[in-house]
Amino acid sequence: MLQGYIYDGLRSPFGRHAGALAAVRPDDLAARVIRALVERSDLPVERIEDVILGNVCQSGEDSRNVARFAGLLGGVREEAGGLTVNRLCGSGMAAALDAARSITVGEAGLYLAGGTESMTRAPFVMGKSPSAWDRQPKIYDSTIGTRFPNKQFAKEFGDYTMPQTADNLASEYGIGREESDAFAHASQQKYEAARADGFFKDEILPIEIPGRKGAVTVVDADEHPRPETTLEKMASLKPIFEGGVVTAANASGAMMARRRSWWGPRIWGRSRGRGSCRARLPGCRPGSWGSGRASPCPRRWNARG
């Protein structure tokens, strides 16, 4: 059992690709949330040992080690470290688990853990020429995918995009287009019910975006959800790949956001902290990555007896 406790948490709104947060760098976005969390805390912030952030892109303004940059910009003491971890879609959770493990073994007392990403600002990247006088450089979009694909890996395991792996799972488990749309539609409705009930109110930090002539835009709500959509509208969209079930309406979006939480031992008041936890790490076939979330469950249940 991991003996790490969450004492506070805060996040930015989830921004749409090329949306209201497009002008904000990922390190700046993370720093704003860190600073707000540190300033409102009554924990001994001078005892922060490390800032751990999950981050996937890491090829542009993420600054190679975005945790260190964001920590300093956010007001964390210089003596604290900065660690950036990448487990793709599980990077933020991996950061939190790293903090919990370190606390459990007594390495330190307080950590800031979370994740930051801006898929909007991920750059186009160009590799170095393989030979002198090469006039055919290749440019890749680092927003998503393998960027510089390994031919041997593609030969052995394939070079699937995320929509392709979702279609693979739909075919394997007999999930149809109507079921996929219905599940996505229900997700939108559940989000809206939670939002209307004020569930997200205390966890979102409004982000101010300076504009022209001194104008300031305040982003204080998630952009990506579209609860007004209908099953009829969703059904009218063509699938991304012929014969597949994934569409722009039932797929997850490319977004930008930043989340941060305090992790510490229970010595600062177990009643204030939110639970310890157990963790299992999944692995799955490269062509069916979406099944990775399910594979640890039987192992966790077996471990508990």
General description of the model:
The longest helix is centred in the middle third of the chain and has 20 residues, at 177-196. The two termini are 14 Å apart. α1 (26-40) crosses α2. The protein contains eight helices and ten strands. The radius of gyration is 21 Å and the shape is globular. The protein is an alpha+beta fold and 305 residues long. The protein has one domain (5-124, 160-304): Thiolase/Chalcone synthase (Peroxisomal Thiolase, Chain A, domain 1, 3-Layer(aba) Sandwich), CATH 3.40.47. A hairpin with a 5-residue loop joins β8 and β9. 30% of the residues lie in helices and 18% in strands. Strands 1, 2, 3, 4, 5 and 10 form a six-stranded mixed beta sheet that branches. A two-stranded antiparallel ribbon has the order 6-7. The protein has a two-stranded antiparallel ribbon with strand order 8-9.
Shape: globular
In the CATH hierarchy, what is the class?
Answer: Alpha Beta
CATH topology grouping: Peroxisomal Thiolase, Chain A, domain 1
- Into which percent range does the helicity of residues fall? 25-40%
The helix/strand order is EEHEHEHEEEHHHEEHEH
Please tag this protein with its features.
alpha+beta; 305 residues; 6-stranded mixed sheet; 30% helix; Peroxisomal Thiolase, Chain A, domain 1
